[in-house]
Amino acid sequence: MTTFQINGREVSVTAEDDTPLLWVVRDELGLIGSKFGCGVAQCGACTMHLDGQPVRACVTPVSDVAGREVTTIEGLGGDVASAVREAWVKLDVVQCGYCQSGQIMSAVALLSEISAPSETDIDNAMNGNICRCNTYQRIRTAIHDAATTLKG
Question: pTM higher than 0.70, yes or no?
């Protein structure tokens, strides 16, 4: 049994230690906002925060999160998350939407660390978050917009 915090509440799960966090969150806990994309940590659709840092949940064994805090798209909150979500809507970032939970999780992690990211900062933080609809320019613009909103 593995016990950890998810979105502010403690849970205990019975999954095998090597079960990917993504499957535990989706199948045992019923939180389906994070998506399965590639299964090899390359696309970013499964991105969650572990102790505030983005991780690829498709390759993170549930045993690695014991006693730690996991945040999924469903539990993402605060000023940074609000600014990112507002920018996403304002700039109509989403097309199909499949990758967007991972994109948003990565953008929030970036803006939580760097309040005014450069193009290079954005490239580094978002590298590996694949968008099949190719909305990368809108994602980049939304990150800058959210940063401007946070400056007030």
Answer: yes
